[in-house]
Design a protein that fits this description.
26% strand; homotetramer; eight-stranded mixed β-sheet; 251 residues; globular; two-stranded antiparallel ribbon; alpha/beta
């Protein structure tokens, strides 16, 4: 039988090389701001993949990689440990296809954090405002009041009524579900006009995040990466749309 | 692993300070009549929160509170014990997102009532009639025939064919599921034109309910509270609509 | 915790007064032909209710009965034993709201049949043809080839390609799921124009069914009962439509 | 209780007559290319049915067979062992109706392969391009890089960005889920204009597949079989559409 959610750690990585005090979540979402920021950091820092997560709550399809080999849809955990600190990154192809799956997957994510010694989670997302803004704000939310000051000092904005009362998906649920585990949670949402991968919003979020982390990350390649990601995502989304048609046809 | 439904009682409240003979349910629904009545009573009586319920059947999002901190969507149980009696109140952000979840959550609610010594449940809802009425009736239903007379004496109306054969969600299911537990159930539905928070309907329902309880509750602040609730709910609903768009985008 | 499907037998009925060699299923469906035939037979024969089935796969609502008392949506089993034979009847408010629920409920129905000694199941349904026919045929299907001749002798018609390759819901699944239990299954589908309760189609099906059973049932009141059922169902359907709107509003 | 997925092996077939080194999957899909290829091979080779798979994740209906008898929707495993080799075939009426079901069923399929000694799985599908092409390509994907060369030698094409990043349903998931079991996986997708059963595409896929298998299969009857399959499928699809209407009516 298939488990509803499976976690596989890379065997060659020793358990003590999996831990970190900080997790940065950047799963797909509005403007793919979180995905872009997290994947950019993974590449700039040279983070290493330590775990893969598969689930029946992801879309029922495989991804075709360069060279024509396939792999299951997944979420992945990367880890960097070096002169700029020690971080885990949570990235992936998709979030859950169902509301229940969002809860169950997010609980697994925070449980992994708990096991790996994480004391603070940053979740990165976009905040869709539906129009183009000259200035891109970074709207923030926290899971403990005492976190607010440092986020504001780094440039994050707490704006009552934004985003309209709630944060959906893993970016929100990980903050809520980590409260009983005693893990600090900070959500940074870059304002973005809509659904295109938004490197300008990601750049602004990256600057707030790195201030909070106390490190510097070169953002020169963010725009280039946004372009590549846009191409790859258009393919996936196109495939998703086709999938729905096909599923209704073959199912 | 996350439980499908989790109940957490406040640790500082002793078990003997959780019981009550009467539960008043006011979850979100038509015209938010139930929510308004129950939350008004909680505030007027100064009821104390004794338990929180979380579930994967609630929408997959967190709520942003004043000050920018987040919390999981939940349902909550409050308790008042004083000169006006001893009551439990069931209130919350949402009802279930699925039909199966409605059943499973409602069963948990009546099981909690059973454990806490509840002998009668009042469920409060709205009855949408789609137009404005000069007189707001309170349509009633019961889970035992011998309850009918006292409800009529208090001003509740039993009107054949209203509401059209059924009562949906927790307000209905809690009445049905409490029958095998021997708990009395009375549903009071205030006529309301539609989807706005309706303080006039809530005032009428409150007057019937308090007659049944044999107490008096000041209704002066109901209209003011309805206004505040309307603002908060519009935000949540807007977020819900966005969530659906976003979930179909990121899922 | 609530079971996904619950069966409660009437306690006052002795186990030996639950058995029967034949089960007649008439749950809601096209033209409500099955429901009308089965409920008519229950009333004409004076069959007695012996069991109630509740499930989270039914719509999440209660039914308001005459007098203003509520009950959970259910399916019910009635039994008649007398000079016209011994029969079980399966009737109810709704079928499942999900595909998985259809399978799980139908399996429970045939398991009950197996326990109660049933050796043949008749499932009654409508066959929607979308237009008015002068002559109402009774299209049949069986779960064993050797049943075909007797059905044809009684007036049932086997017409290749009708109904288009499949029979949906309990009427079909009970036939398929009873094969491994060694229970004979015969489905009788009355041609009907559409969605109104169709007493003419039910009369024709009743005549074929009673020939197969070797008994006579007066059909004089079928039209009258169809009228009453139509009124009750319109209320339920109206409520169902409202429920969906409301669920999307409160959920 | 009904299992979510049930596998029944034909009792008369000895366990040693169930094994094979190769499985060929041809479930319904785009252009029904896989279904046509697999069912053609089953008939040309005279393969024997060794197992039937039922599931609550299939549509809730029975299929009416010639003669008016019904059977549950299913997937079936056939086996051929003779001078042309030893093969298993996976064919059936439908794929899953839900995303979670796709994963759970595909896991069962690869687990069966593992038990029966399968070392390579071929999944056959269509690749919908939405228009008519003079030349029908066979687009391929593999679950191990070292399989690519032999597929290209047999005429399969690896084209970056086709099919758009993913393969949905069993054809894709079986490749992904067989990786941890050490089973080789090759997916062959015949270009096809759209939703009609496409014998021309199937002929091309068959030629690539038989080159990979090192055998010859006469393709003269493929067009005839495509015509018969088209008629049968139109009935099923029509029934499916009706089912959805009816389910929303009776559920």
């Amino acid at each position: 039988m298939m488990e509803d959610i499976t976690i596989r750690f890379e065997e060659l990585i020793a358990p003590e090389d999996r831990t970190a005090p900080i997790m940065i979540e950047g799963l797909p979402g509005i403007g793919h701001v979180g995905k872009l920021v997290a994947e950019h950091m993974i590449q700039e820092l040279g983070a290493v993949r330590i775990a893969e997560i598969n689930s029946i709550y992801f879309p029922p399809q495989v991804i075709i990689q360069e060279g024509g080999t396939v792999r299951l849809c997944n979420n992945e955990i990367y880890r960097y440990s070096g002169e700029k600190g020690t971080y885990l990154f949570l990235v992936g192809d998709f979030q859950s296809t169902s509301g229940e799956g969002h809860y169950l997957l997010s609980q697994v994510y925070v449980d992994i954090c708990h096991q790996l010694g994480v004391r603070r989670i940053y979740t990165i997302g976009g905040y869709g405002v539906g129009h183009f803004n000259e200035v891109t704000r970074v709207i923030a939310a926290v899971n403990r009041e005492d976190l607010r000051q440092q986020v504001e000092d780094a440039g994050g904005i707490f704006s009552e009524g934004e985003p309209g009362g709630g944060i959906i998906g893993a970016a929100g649920l990980m903050l809520g579900l980590s409260i009983p585990l005693g893990i600090e949670g900070i959500c940074l949402m870059g304002e973005t006009s809509g659904y295109l991968v938004d490197p300008r919003s990601a750049t602004t979020v990256l600057s707030v995040l790195t201030k909070l982390l106390g490190i510097e990350i070169d953002d020169a390649k963010l725009t280039e990466r946004a372009g590549e990601m846009e191409v790859a995502l258009q393919r996936l989304l196109e495939q998703e749309r086709k999938s729905e048609e096909e599923l209704s046809y073959i199912g």
